[in-house]
Amino acid sequence: MYPPSRKDFISLTLSDSHNNTYNNGKHRRQSCWRKWKQLSRLQRSLVLFLLALLLIFGLLSYPGITEQWRGGSDREDWLELNDRDVKDLPPGVKSILDQAEGKALPPVAEPHVLPAVDPDAVTGAVVEPRGPNVPIMPKPPIKNKNFPNKRGPPSLHKDGNISDTVGGEKEVQEVVREDEGEDDDKEKKIVSWRGAMIEADQATEPPPSASEREAAAPPADPADTVPSEVPTVAVDRLQAVCDAFRHAWKGYKDYAWGHDELKPISRSFGEWFGLGLTLIDSLDTMWILGLKEEFAEARDWVEKELTFDKNVDVNLFETTIRVLGGLLSTYHLTGDQLFLDKAKDIGSRLMPAFKTPSKIPFSDVNIGKGTAHPPRWTSDSTLAEVTSIQLEFRELSRLTQDPQYQEVVNEVMKLVHKLPGKHDGLVPMFINTNSGQFTHKGVFTLGARADSYYEYLLKQWIQGGKTEDDLLEDYLQAVEGVKKHLVRQTGPSKLTFVGELSHSRFNPKMDHLVCFLPGTLALGAHNGLPGDHMDLAVQLMETCHQMYRQMETGLSPEIVHFNMQASDGQDVVVKPADRHNLLRPETVESLFYMYRFTKDPKYRDWGWEILLSFNNYTKVPGGGYTSINNVRDPVNPGPRDKMESFFLGETLKYLYLLFSDDAELLSLDKYVFNTEAHVLPIWPSPPK
User: Fold this and answer.
1) Are 173 and 145 a contacting pair, CB within 8 Å?
2) Measured between alpha carbons, how far is residue 482 from residues 396, 477, 539 in Å?
3) Which helix (H) or strand (E) holds 143?
4) What's the CA gap between 132 and 135, in Å, rounded?
C-alpha cells in the first residue's frame, strides 16, 4: 500500500457562539500571493500578457459586442459625412444617410433615369451643371447589391462639358446584400477575394428616395400632375476615367514597372515579351487624358530602358498592334522623334516574319536573332493576325519613306482577296504559311481569330483615302455575308446577335470580341456606305449592352449563347467556362463610335454603367484592376490576378473619348484607330 499523501497545511474549523464558521482560506490566499511574489518579473509579465490576450480574444469572438462596435463606427462615419458634406442640400434632395436608413428600392425591369447626387461634390452648395443636364444612366440590374458611396469633389470640369463623372479617390468597401429584396438595415457582407477588398469608391449612386423615385417616374396623366423639380449635381465622368487610369497606373508603377503586365492581387508582374507592353500601350492614353507627369515618367523609361535588342520570341500581331501601333500613335500626338525612332527599330525587327514560301507571315519572330517561325504545334497562322497588321506597317512606310513595310502587308491582302474558300465574303479562321491556302474550311465567325480581318478591311480603305477598291469590295461582301448567314434574333426579346457557322450548322454563340462590329458598321455608314449598316449597328449595340446589363455584376462574360426559342426565358445564356471578364474594350469602343455619330446620350449612360461596374468588381485597393472569373457572382467574382495592357490602352481611352464633348478630339474624319485603339492619321486623298 502507498503511504498516505503528505499535506503541507492543517485545516481548522472553529465555531463561535453565534455558529459562524471559520476556515483557513485567507491563509491560502496569502500563500498564493507569496508564490506570485516569488516569480520573476519576466514570468509575471508573461502571465499577465497571456491573460490580457485571452480577454481580448474573448471579447472579439463575442459577435454581439463586435457588431455594436462596427455599427457604432459606421454610424459615426455616416453622421460625420452627413454633417460635413450635405447639411446644406436644397429641399427635395435627401442625404445619403437618410437613404441608407430607408428601404431599398425593389428591382425593376427598366429602371428610371434619375439625376445623381454626389455627396462629396456638394460642400455647402449645389454645383450647377455645365451645359444641358445629361441624366445618369439606369443602374445595371444587379438585383442583390447596394453600394454606399464616398467621393471627393470633381477636379476636372472642361468648359461646356456635359459629361458626368464620378470623382474622388476616397476608398470605401463594397457591401453586398445577402439576399435579394432584403432591407438596407440587415446584415451585409464585404466583398473580398483572396485577401483583396474590391472597393466601391466611384461606385454607383445611392438609391433614390421614394419621393425622388415618384418624381422621376412617368406620370399616368401629365395634365393632372405637376412635375417636381429636383436639383441635380453635375458628375464629372471625364475625371472618373482619369481617376481610374491613375489607380491602374499606380499599381503598374508600384509593382510592375517596365514589365509587360501587372498582377494586382499578388502585387507582382507577368512577362510576355519583356517589352513593357502596358507602358507602351498606355502612352497615347496618358497624352489624351492630359496626365503629363505620368507621361513624362513613361517617356523617360522608353528613352533610357526600352531596347528591342534581346533574344526573345514575340508574336507578330500582338507586337505590331501594341508596340508598333502605340509608338506610331504617340509620335503623331506628340511630334517627339524618339517614338518614331523606336517604331522604326521594332518594325525592321519584325520583317523576318514575312520570309515564307507563300508570303503569308509566320506568327512568331525572334527580334534579337532576326528569325521567324510558326507555332510549335502547327504551320498555320490565324487569319486575323496576318490581316490586322496592315494599318501600322503602311503608316511606317509613309513616315520613313521606305516602301518595304507597306509592300509586304499589301501582298498579304492581295493574296487573301483572291483565295478560294470564302462563303459570301466570310473567311475561315486559319491560313497556311507554306501553301498560302485557307485551312479548317467551313467554320466562320466574327469572334476570335477572324474578327479584326473585317475591321481592317474598312479601316485600310479609310486610311488610304478611299481609293483601294478591292478592300471596299471585300468589306461590303463580308457584311452581306454576315447578314445572310450569321445574324439571328433571340426568342424572348428579339435581340439581334451574330452567331457562328460550322459546316452549315448555325451556333448561337457570340464572343464579346464581336462587339467591335457595331462601331465598325457605324464608321462605314459615316463614310458613305449603305444606311442599313447603321440600322444593324444600332440593333447589335443594344445586344452588347444587354450582355452587360443581364449579368449580376453588370459586366459581360467572355462568351454568351443566345436563346432562340420563343419563350419567356432569358435571352442570354452563359456557360460556366465562359463567365470570365478580361476588362475588354470592344463594347465601349462601339459605344464611342455610336455616340460620336448619333449623339444619343443613352450610349454615354451605358458606358458609365460599365465603368461603375469595373470600379465595383475589378478594382484592387493597392492599385490596378483585375480580370475576374465569374460575372454572375457579385459576392465572389473571383480575381484572375491580371490586368491586361489593353485596359489602359483601349478600354479607358474609349471611355474618356465617349464622355468628352470635344468632337475634334481625335476626329474620326482625320484619324483611324487600329485594333488596339492607337490612332493613325487618314492619308490625304491623292490629286485626281
Assistant:
1) no
2) 32, 9, 14
3) none
4) 10
Q: Could you tell me which residues come within 8 angstroms of residue 72 by beta carbon, excluding any fewer than 6 positions away?
A: none
Select from 675, 679, 517, 648 the least CA-distant residue to 583: 648
* pLDDT score of 617 more than 50: yes
Q: Is 675 assigned a ligand-binding role in the annotation?
A: yes
Active site residue 318: yes
% residues pLDDT > 70 (the chain)? 70
Counts for the chain of helices (H) and strands (E), in that order = 22, 24
pTM: 0.69
Q: Which three cell numbers stand for residue 535?
A: 440600322
Backbone angles phi, psi at 275, to 5 degrees: -120, 15
Q: Which residue has the cell 474618356?
A: 656
| 188 phi/psi in degrees, rounded to 5 | -120, 160
Cell 454606399, residue located: 148
Q: Is 558 a catalytic residue?
A: yes
The predicted structure's pLDDT at residue 47: 85
Residue 78 or residue 632, greater confidence:
632
Q: Considering the chain, what percentage of its residues have pLDDT values greater than 90?
A: 64
The predicted structure's pLDDT at residue 29: 52
Q: How far is residue 149's CA from residue 200's CA, in Å, rounded to a whole number?
A: 7
- 36 contact partners, CB below 8 Å, separation of at least 6: 44
CA dist 536 and 521 (Å) reads 8
Asked whether the beta carbons of 511 and 447 are under 8 A apart, the reply is yes
Distance separating alpha carbons of residues 543 and 545, to the nearest angstrom:
5
Three-class SS state of 535: helix
Give the DSSP letter string of 602-642.
HHHHHHHHHHHHHHHHTB-TTS-B--BS-TT-SS---B-S-
Residue 147 clears pLDDT 70, i.e. is over it? no
Average pLDDT estimate for 237-243 = 97
Overall average pLDDT of the 390-403 stretch = 98
Assess whether 609 carries a catalytic annotation: no
Categorize the per-residue pLDDT at 429 as very low, low, confident or very high, splitting at 50, 70 and 90. Answer: very high
User: Which residues, in sequence order, are CB contacts of 606 under 8 Å at separation 6+?
Assistant: 137, 545, 548, 591
Nearest to 477 by CA among 496, 497, 457: 457
Which of 392, 360, 388 has its CA nearest to residue 374?
360
The C-alpha cell of 221 is what? 396623366
CA angle 601, 604, 606 (to 5 degrees): 110
If you average pLDDT over residues 264-278, what whole number do you get? Answer: 97
Residue 291 in contact with residue 275, Cβ under 8 Å? Answer: no
Catalytic residue among 174, 260, 261, 318, which?
318
Total length of the chain: 688
Tally of CA atoms within 13 A in the half-sphere of 653 that contains its CB: 29
Q: So what's the pLDDT on residue 57?
A: 79
> Of these residues, 85, 199, 451, 500, which one is catalytic?
451
Of the candidates 558, 605, 641, 644, the residue annotated as catalytic is: 558
The enclosing H or E element of 81 equals helix 63-85
In DSSP terms, which residues pair with 188 in a beta bridge?
177
Beta-strand relationship, 261-263 and 268-270: antiparallel
DSSP three-state, residue 387 = coil
Residue 665, sorted as left (phi over 0), alpha (psi -120 to 50) or beta, turns out to be beta
Q: Which DSSP symbol is given to 350?
A: H
Check residues 289 and 111 and name the one with the higher pLDDT: 289
Q: Tell me what pLDDT residue 35 has.
A: 74
Cα–Cα distance, 306 to 298 (Å, whole number): 10
